[in-house]
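Feature request, filed as a ticket because there's no other form

It would be nice if the structure record came with a short human-readable summary line next to the tokens. Right now we just get the raw output. Example of a typical job, pasted below so the devs can see what we mean:
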Amino acid sequence: MQKAEPLRVADRVTAEALVAGVLGNMAALEAVLAEEAAFVREGRLQEGVAAAEPKAALAAAYMQGLEVAKANAVALKRFHPDGVELLRTAHRRFTTAVEANQTVLASAKTVSEGLIKSLAEEIGRAQLPSGYGRQAPAPSPYGRGVRSGPLVLSRNL
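Raw output as currently delivered:
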């Protein structure tokens, strides 16, 4: 993982180094996002969480590199115009990868929320006694009604 340091681009070598650093961080972050999304798609959430551990550090390094590139945009364009085009192309590809990752994570969140809601409804239905006459909820030992019973979840996947 490369971290961009605040610098001023004053020549072609520095411009090339800045572009290479940003591209390197972007590629590493894209690989982590793809690995995380692949694990989540497969339902292997523990591996997905473990794969995403370096994501925050890589994202911070990438954002710092982008800030340095923005601050030196004129010098980059002057000393390394091909690098600016490389950054634009790579950024478009990276944006697509981020959107795909966000879609996978949003889908997993929606599915898990649906499972929890259906589980809570099933538990609530189980508390209604079945028999003749009016259906009334069983008295709760917690004194707050049918849906107030505790729902215990395990955080271990």
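Something like this underneath would help us a lot:
DSSP finds five helices and no strands in the chain.
The radius of gyration is 25 Å.
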